[in-house]
């Protein structure tokens, strides 16, 4: 309870704030909890001044009941330990820092049924928005159920943002996957490579398919100088590259051959196994990846990659989630030619 002089007290209540401000409890509640019902500017100012003087903090649960939404943004990723997802999450959190919104992160571990449960969890919590990051699959058995849950969020006044998705009809941050790998193929042809092995990740991952197709499109533009193109399916992470490294070597090596890995983690897995086998990059075989994750700064040879501006992608998703912008946003990629693919 506040003292008569309005000295702050740890037990200050909404009633104390209303009394000090000279308004009703209902008016004080509307002023502090973000109700859409109008409160005069003078009354709102007096209520906020009284709350500050008393050290009163509004109850977030009460605020969400009044608004129908919390200030929480739900971020769903496959693996927050992966640099790709960590970079996007960092950009999103940084962009929302000054908005008063909070970010809760859920990890799917590539389990599609678990992803739906996490969407439902954020829906029950009345999240202001849910952001889903990562590749969709062409064989998703739960796509209809996921779509239904996401539609419920938007129907109730929340927002859904997809990052690196273009299959669902929601606001999206689109990555130039196909364009980036097409430009990489052209750049590799320019410096003299004529033989190519594509380590394409899982064939059911839309991101992997887009990157593989873009690379093939780039090669097709100069088909006359392309001598050989091979493709190997792999996992989508470091272990995936490590596991197929010997198979990739069996398809050929030499000064004119370059391996394009569908992402940098796959490329790093290949590099690790080849080192164990005594195979040197780039003297025995050249190597390029995609994403340009920060980890590459500490790897030698410095890996050629396609830069995805992860922080910018996260910031763009945050602005869509917070209703600062609307519609779809496309994030461009940039080819970074480095030591692992010297001119031949």
From TrEMBL:
Organism domain of life = Bacteria
Q: Does the keyword Cytoplasm apply?
A: no
Q: Which Pfam families does this entry report, sorted A to Z?
A: LacI, Peripla_BP_3
Do you know which InterPro entries this protein is assigned to? HTH_LacI, LacI/GalR-like_sensor, Lambda_DNA-bd_dom_sf, Peripla_BP_I
Under the heading SMART domains, the entry gives: HTH_LACI
Q: Name one GO molecular function term.
A: DNA-binding transcription factor activity
Is the keyword DNA-binding assigned to this protein? yes
Per UniProt, the keywords (alphabetical) are: DNA-binding, Transcription, Transcription regulation
- Gene3D superfamilies for the chain: 3.40.50.2300, lambda repressor-like DNA-binding domains
Question: Which residue ranges does the record assign to the HTH lacI-type domain?
Answer: 12-67
Q: Which PANTHER family match?
A: LACI-RELATED TRANSCRIPTIONAL REPRESSOR, LACTOSE OPERON REPRESSOR
Which protein, by its recorded name, is this?
Answer: LacI family transcriptional regulator
Species name for this entry? Answer: Aeromicrobium ginsengisoli
Upper classification of the source organism reads:
Bacteria, Bacillati, Actinomycetota, Actinomycetes, Propionibacteriales
């Amino acid at each position: 309870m506040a003292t008569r002089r309005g000295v702050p007290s740890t037990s200050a209540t909404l009633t104390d704030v209303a009394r000090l401000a000279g308004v009703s409890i209902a008016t004080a509640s509307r002023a502090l909890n973000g109700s859409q019902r109008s409160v005069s500017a003078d009354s709102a100012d007096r209520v906020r001044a009284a709350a500050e003087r008393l050290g009163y903090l509004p109850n977030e649960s009460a605020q969400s009941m009044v608004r129908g939404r919390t200030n929480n943004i739900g971020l769903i990723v496959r693996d927050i330990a992966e640099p790709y997802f960590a970079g996007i999450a960092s950009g999103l959190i940084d962009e929302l820092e000054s908005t008063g919104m909070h970010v809760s992160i859920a990890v799917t571990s590539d389990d599609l049924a678990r992803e739906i449960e996490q969407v439902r969890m954020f829906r029950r919590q009345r999240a202001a928005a849910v952001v889903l990051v990562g590749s969709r699959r062409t064989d998703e058995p739960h796509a209809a159920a996921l779509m239904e849950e996401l539609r419920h969020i938007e129907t109730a006044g929340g927002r859904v943002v997809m990052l690196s998705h273009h299959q669902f009809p929601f606001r999206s941050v689109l990555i130039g996957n196909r364009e980036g790998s097409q430009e990489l193929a052209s750049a590799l042809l320019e410096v003299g490579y004529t033989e190519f092995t594509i380590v394409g990740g899982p064939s059911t991952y839309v991101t992997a398919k887009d990157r593989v197709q873009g690379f093939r499109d780039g090669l097709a533009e100069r088909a006359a100088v392309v001598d050989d193109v091979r493709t190997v399916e792999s996992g989508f992470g470091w272990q995936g590259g490590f596991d197929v490294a010997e198979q990739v070597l069996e398809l050929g090596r030499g000064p004119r051959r370059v391996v394009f890995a569908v992402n940098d983690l796959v490329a790093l897995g290949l590099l690790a196994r080849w080192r164990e086998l005594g195979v040197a990059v780039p003297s025995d075989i050249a190597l390029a990846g995609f994403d340009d994750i920060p980890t590459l700064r500490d790897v030698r040879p410095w890996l050629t990659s396609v830069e995805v501006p992860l922080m910018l992608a996260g910031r763009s998703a945050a602005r869509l989630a917070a209703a600062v912008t609307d519609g779809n946003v496309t994030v461009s990629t940039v080819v970074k030619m480095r030591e692992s693919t010297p001119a031949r």
